[in-house]
Amino acid sequence: MRSNKLYTGVAIAATLAVTVAGCGGGSAGEKSGGDETPITLRVGTVNAETEEAPYADEVEEFANAVETLSDGSIDVEIVWEAPGPHTGESERRMADMVWEGEIDLAIVPTRVWDQLEVTSFEALQAPFVVDSLGLLNEIAGSDLATEMLAGLDAVGTTGLAIWPESLRHPVSFGEPLLTAADFQGTKLLVPASDASLRLARAIGVDPVDPLDRAAAIGSGEMEGAESAFVWSNQLPVVGTVTANITFYPKANTIVANAEAFADLSGDRQDVLQQAASDTLAYVVETNAAEQDLAAQYCADGGRVVLAQASDVAELVELAAPLLTELEQNADTRRFVDEILAMKAEAPTDSAGAPEACEPGGDNASGPTGDEDDTRAFPDGVYRTESESGVVTMEYREGVWKRFLPNGELDCESTYVVESGRIWLTSSTDLALTCGNPPGHDFLNAAWTFEGDQLRFVDIDSDPAAVREFSLPWTKIE
Question: How confident is the prediction along the chain (477 residues), in pLDDT tens digits per residue?
Fold first, then answer.
């Protein structure tokens, strides 16, 4: 499993002063509510707890902050996957649930609110405007965020905060997406959002959202995705990210049902708002830099490329009519202008920009082939007990196969051996890549072999592969 969040330890102020929508009358940061009857509030999320959503630790941080600030009088119950098993409609359904009062609180991406005719977040979806996490952080902690959240009042929802999450880039499962021509007719997974879908079509993309994404990749129905480094572990296979093409950011709103929120005492309203603000500070501190995320993506088997500035400019030009359409809304135009002003004043952090890299990071050069000698590796069939049960691997004349506990062939690759190390290169058959890019090196390791025990050491691979390959393997034939 690939990591989806890094902790950078970036120092920021101990608290982040944010004025949030609908502030009550208590003192910010003051513990309150201890004398009131204890209550439980349910906060819904779209993803399952086991999916390692990048916001998972943030909602837990929020729940803990509420309990602490209320002296234990408010318990927050996290309802993972509240709308049910994840589909393309889950985010919209999550918004409906909190609006309709089926749940007290919810984490809802800003992008989905335009499907409920809330236009106050459209400036965040404006194409190619917000292109750095630093700028997104600044927006989330500004008065502009308060104004955006106020737009939720029209749909019976009270916005508490905007939590910045990630930047959205094109990911290809084949050839890199570098030029405007590369996007023409390409079938990309695009999450449900009116503005996102309109941008996809403006640059020539054919937006798709198949139910069975793995099958869709194999059939050619899905050729890539609009995604982010922090969500790469949710895609069926790793691919190639064009890191300097940033369509827009993704941010999440923490919202409450307006009626349920109004029924709370002023002290309890303050607790929720302060907890949301404190969690924003936590989010800004712990969200990893794009440069670090890109390096980790390559270390986990992905590839990162950079487009030419002229090609990025051509995409921006294709999207310009959409930006003009969005700015027909006076508030959206004003928000975009304010964001551009922030952007102009912000220092350029070129040192934090992602760099191009190959699978495996700096160690991805692979063998030269000059000293290839598969006979030095103890070919045969090996078995171990892994997290998923009994797993069998076969090494025969330069071909590696992995079999599931039921005997079904799961993965296949070629391998070469050089100077005491083995390199496995994933199959070109998407059904047998085990989530790795077709034709890329996904394992680089040394080994020991004593008696019938094979152990891989000094392993350079995806963390999940490292865990499995580092187990003791018993030769059975």
Answer: 333 443 333 333 333 333 333 333 333 333 444 568 999 999 999 998 877 789 999 999 999 999 999 999 999 999 999 999 988 899 999 999 999 999 999 999 999 999 999 999 999 999 999 999 999 999 999 999 999 999 999 999 999 999 999 999 999 988 999 999 999 999 999 998 999 999 999 999 999 999 888 788 878 899 999 999 999 888 887 889 999 999 999 999 999 999 999 999 999 999 999 999 999 999 999 999 999 999 988 887 789 999 999 999 999 999 999 999 999 999 999 999 999 999 998 766 544 689 999 877 654 444 444 444 444 789 999 999 877 789 999 999 888 898 888 888 888 888 888 878 888 887 777 677 676 667 777 788 888 888 889 988 878 776 667 778 888 899 998
Dig out the tokens for 381 from the structure. 């069939």
Burial of 83 (0-12, 13-18, 19+ CB in 10 A): buried
CB 252 within 8 A of CB 107: yes
Q: How far is CA 145 from the centre of its chain?
A: 22
Please count the CA atoms within 13 angstroms of the CA of 374 that sit on its side-chain side.
Answer: 13
d(CA 346, CA 107): 29
> What stretches of 292-361 adopt beta strand conformation (E)?
303-305
Dihedral of the alpha carbons of 279, 285, 290, 296, in degrees to the nearest 10:
-100
Structure tokens at 383: 């078995």
- Report the Cα–Cα distance between both ends of the chain, in Å, rounded: 30
Q: Are 299 and 57 in contact (CB under 8 A)?
A: no
Dihedral sign for Cα 252, 256, 257, 258, please. Answer: negative
Structure tokens at 41: 């509030």
Domain extent listing, the chain? 39-352, 374-475
CATH 1.10.10.10 is held by the domain 374-475: no
CA pair distance 127, 148, nearest whole angstrom: 17
**Residue 23 CA neighbour count, 13 Å, CB half:** 15
CB proximity list for 181: less than 8 A, separation 6 or greater: none
**What fold is seen in the domain 39-352?**
D-Maltodextrin-Binding Protein; domain 2 (3.40.190)
d(CA 423, CA 459) in angstroms, rounded, equals 10
Which single residue is written with the structure tokens 């992008």?
Answer: 111
Task: Give me the DSSP letters along 5-18.
Answer: ---------SS---
